[in-house]
Amino acid sequence: MLSDTNPLTEAQVAQFRDEGYLFLPDAFSPEEVAALREEAVAIFRTDRPEIWREKSGSPRTAFAAHTYNEAFRLLGAHPRLIRPVEQLFGEQLYMHQFKINAKSAFDGEVWQWHQDYGTWKRDDGMPEPRAMNISVFLDEVTHINGPLMLVPRSQRHGTLDAAHDLTTTSYPLWTLDNDTVTRLVDEGGIVVPVGKPGGVLMFHGNLVHGSAGNITPFPRKIVYLTLNAVSNHIRTPTRAEWIAHQDFTPIEPVADDSLMEFARRYRAAAE
Ligand code: SIN
Ligand code: MN
Q1: Phi, psi of 29 (to 5 degrees)
Q2: Where are the domains of the chain?
Q3: Which of 12, 117, 188, 271 is deepest in the core (most CB within 10 A)?
Q4: Rounded to the nearest 10 degrees, what angle do helices 258-270 and 30-44 cross at?
Q5: What is the pLDDT along the chain (271 residues), one digit of tens a residue?
Q6: Whole-prediction pTM value?
Q7: How far apart are CA 226 and CA 70, in angstroms?
Q8: Pocket test for ligand 1, best of 115, 145, 222 (most atoms within 8 A of CB)
Q9: Are 99 and 61 in contact (CB under 8 A)?
Q10: Would you tell me which CATH number, out of the four given (3.10.50.40, 2.60.120.620, 3.40.50.170, 1.10.10.10), belongs to the domain 24-270?
């Protein structure tokens, strides 16, 4: 069911529509995020087909953890993430993609400049850019450990020509050429939202973004939910179900305190 209360202020909605992104620091408490972070570390230690590794062997991305891990199941249906996106899209949502990006200390590799909707459209047959990327910081994201870089207002240019890069990293990506990025950055600049674990960044499917490698001793784990409007479900999937989901059931948000309750039980069990 759609909520009749709107969590985002008018100013926040305007910022998203104009700039293409919205940053909500402190969306999750240190206790909530500590449980998620520990679970992410445990997941990266396992050997599953849903976990992709860098060329060095260190983890790059763990897909679909919300389907097999209780902490991430609660995060994937959390009202602090679902309600703002329902407000912006005016309809219910399903999970198109769920990933935990490791960006490991010393070994985390680059994510080339791209638009996510470019991939959702070309690889998955998503009709419109009515899916939202939400990142939840599990570690502190700083200017030096491979933060996400965004080009404000670039979403206004629609879906740009891109080339399928299959070689730079272990992960195939539709990437933008240097001239295009230069032109967009001349116009909008680059912003780097940084902050403590528990911060949340939402950005438009056509917002140009990327991140440099992480050669610091500080890991930079971020969870990415891609929430798609149910009516905008993908039409021609080509990727594995655990990368681009084909269950279009609307997400019913869990209780707001459910992740906190989980974190308390988790802590008590560890003591
Ligand atoms: C992405 O763009 O999908 C991931 C970028 C990052 O984690 O730095
Ligand atoms: Mn992306």
Answers
A1: -75, 160
A2: 24-270
A3: 117
A4: 70
A5: 888 889 999 999 999 999 999 999 999 999 999 999 999 999 999 999 999 998 889 999 999 999 999 999 999 999 999 999 999 999 999 999 999 999 999 999 999 999 999 999 999 999 999 999 999 999 999 999 999 999 999 999 999 999 998 888 877 889 999 999 999 999 999 999 999 999 999 999 999 999 999 999 999 999 999 999 999 999 999 999 999 999 999 999 999 999 999 999 999 998 8
A6: 0.96
A7: 18
A8: 222
A9: yes
A10: 2.60.120.620
Q: Token match 């959702």: residue?
A: 120
Output the ligand 1 site: residues, CB below 6 A: 101, 103, 111, 148, 209, 211, 222, 224
**Shortest-distance ligand to the CA of residue 171:** 1
Q: Indicate which atom in ligand 1 lies nearest the CA of residue 99.
A: 3
Residue whose structure tokens are 């308390």: 264
The token duo for 76 is 């994937």
How far does residue 212's CA lie from ligand 1's centre (Å)? 10
